[in-house]
């Protein structure tokens, strides 16, 4: 088929070519409108030179407001630029040693050209630790727990060069958490990091510093959503469930084991079966098939306030969600009065518009969202003050605009299904019927008394 048969103008053809080229360019960036500058920054600080290489401290800073890395933790990988080896490590370890047969006597910790590094576990002996290590790879978000949003390990590198001019930065850096989702850019030389001594009286600096920036994309992490939102209200009997097939559809005929019935005799077998150590969700059979459901219930209406109940339910039999969090957009968060049993922090992504909140559990109380079962839910209530100029229950105003769970966008019901206020005409009809009913009762009583 030629261009004339499609009846395309030269201008239209040029536009088509432009968009084709645009789509074909791979992008390493991921933009989150609620956290536009969020990323994980990796600093590679060379602290000293050795006979055949250097000693470096590698530090990961999670600058994301609400996206964290939970158990089983992060795995950091890269490709060496030359023929480097890792002689030793503190605070972390390579998952494979690789082929070190050419070395006699002193055997390196890792000889692989593409090593994969993991954090050490809590309780590691002190002589194998450095600051910010040994958390099992768990990395909190910056807003939720900044003290635990940093991870470090020390690596002694050989066969690398021993000066700023001969040493080369690692290439093809990857960050898995434990699955995909993060895309890391190239290492860039930046001004040397500085370090202040514990007494605050001396400042030292690294010999050379490289920065690597990793950004997150939910589409790369999983092709299907991981959570959905349901809604209800006191002024409407309708419960709006999560949209059908929000995260997948039940397909036990062609794909057995895609979900498990809550009271099935095979439930325990499925949990403890061959995939028990897999992090692939094993979800309870529902119409939405999501591991997580967030429910927003408009509970009470007062003269100057209104009250909402928020509940998070875990339908995943294989996962406890540690340090979970919610991010919710609603216009009345600028008048939030009290929140019960959750922590709260305002997120202001659009300058002065305060309509987004981050909620998470109270430590040692409800910060662990248990696997599916009787304890697989957490809940809280929120009290809002009414703004007379903007407040209304009509047209779904009392319901959230967006909901994120652990940084992933949840599937919302269609707006036309939101629980709405009853029609004013219906209310008037009810009032008329009630008035007629009362009048009939009065008339009947009078007739009985006269009779």
CATH architecture of the largest domain: Sandwich
Gap from first CA to last CA: 95 Å
Task: Assign a percent range to the helix content.
Answer: 10-25%
CATH fold topology of the largest domain: Immunoglobulin-like
CATH class of the largest domain: Mainly Beta
The largest β sheet comes out as: 7 strands, antiparallel
- How much is the radius of gyration in Å? 29 Å
Whole-number mean pLDDT? 86
Strand content: 25-35%
Indicate how many domains the architecture comprises.
3
Count, helices? 5
Would you write up a description of this structure?
The chain is mainly β. It is built from five helices and 28 strands. The protein has three domains: about 40-220, Immunoglobulin-like (Sandwich), CATH 2.60.40.290; about 225-420, Immunoglobulin-like; about 425-450. The chain is about 10% helix and about 35% strand. The strands form seven sheets. Strands 1, 2, 4, 7, 9, 10 and 13 form a seven-stranded antiparallel beta sheet that branches. It is globular and about 80 Å long.
Topology:
Elements: H1 3-6, H2 10-24, E1 40-49, E2 53-62, E3 75-79, E4 85-90, E5 92-94, E6 116-119, E7 150-158, E8 171-176, E9 182-184, E10 188-190, E11 194-196, E12 203-205, E13 208-216, H3 218-221, E14 227-233, E15 236-240, E16 259-260, H4 267-271, E17 283-284, E18 292-301, E19 305-314, E20 321-322, E21 325-329, E22 336-340, E23 342-347, E24 356-361, E25 368-369, E26 377-385, E27 402-405, E28 408-409, H5 424-450
Parallel strand pairs: 14-18, 16-17
Antiparallel strand pairs: 1-2, 1-13, 2-7, 3-6, 3-8, 4-7, 5-6, 9-13, 10-13, 11-12, 14-15, 18-19, 19-26, 20-25, 21-24, 21-27, 22-26, 23-24, 27-28
């Amino acid at each position: 088929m030629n261009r004339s048969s499609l009846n395309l103008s030269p201008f239209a053809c040029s536009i088509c070519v432009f968009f084709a080229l645009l789509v074909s360019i791979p992008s390493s960036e991921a933009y989150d409108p609620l956290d536009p500058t969020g990323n994980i920054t990796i600093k590679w600080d060379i602290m000293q030179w050795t006979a055949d290489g250097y000693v470096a401290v590698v530090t990961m800073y999670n600058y994301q407001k609400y996206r964290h890395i939970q158990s089983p933790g992060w795995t950091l990988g890269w490709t060496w630029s030359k023929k480097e080896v890792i002689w030793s490590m503190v605070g972390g370890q390579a998952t494979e040693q690789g082929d070190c047969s050419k070395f006699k006597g002193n055997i390196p910790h890792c000889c692989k050209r593409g090593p994969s590094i993991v954090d050490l576990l809590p309780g590691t002996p002190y002589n194998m630790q450095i600051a910010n290590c040994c958390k099992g790879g768990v990395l909190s978000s910056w807003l939720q727990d900044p003290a635990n949003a940093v991870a470090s390990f020390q690596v002694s590198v050989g066969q690398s060069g021993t000066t700023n001019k001969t040493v080369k930065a690692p290439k093809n850096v990857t960050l898995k958490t434990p699955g995909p989702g993060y895309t890391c850019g190239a290492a860039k030389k930046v001004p040397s990091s500085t370090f202040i001594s514990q007494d605050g009286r001396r400042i030292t600096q690294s010999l050379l510093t490289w920065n690597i920036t990793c950004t997150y994309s939910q589409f790369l992490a999983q092709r299907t959503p991981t959570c959905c939102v349901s809604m209800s209200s006191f002024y409407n009997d309708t419960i709006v469930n999560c949209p059908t097939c929000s995260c997948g559809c039940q397909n036990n005929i062609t794909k057995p084991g895609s979900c498990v019935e809550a009271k099935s005799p095979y439930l325990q077998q499925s949990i403890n079966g061959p995939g028990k150590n897999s992090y692939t969700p094993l979800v309870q059979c529902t119409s939405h098939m999501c591991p997580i459901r967030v429910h927003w219930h408009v509970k009470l209406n007062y003269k100057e306030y209104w009250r909402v109940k928020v509940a998070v339910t875990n339908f995943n039999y294989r996962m406890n969600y540690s340090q979970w969090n919610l991010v919710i957009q609603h216009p009345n968060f600028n008048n939030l009065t009290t929140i019960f049993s959750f922590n709260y922090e305002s997120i202001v992504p659009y300058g002065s518009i305060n309509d987004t909140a981050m909620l998470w559990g109270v430590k040692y109380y409800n910060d662990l969202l248990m696997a599916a079962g009787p304890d697989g839910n957490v809940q809280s209530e929120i009290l809002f003050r009414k703004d007379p100029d903007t407040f209304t229950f009509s047209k779904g105003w009392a319901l959230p605009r967006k909901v994120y769970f652990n940084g992933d966008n949840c599937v919302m019901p269609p707006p036309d299904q939101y629980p709405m206020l009853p029609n004013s005409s219906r209310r008037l009809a009810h009032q008329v019927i009630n008035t007629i009913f009362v009048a009939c009762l009065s008339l009947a009583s009078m007739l009985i008394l006269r009779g």
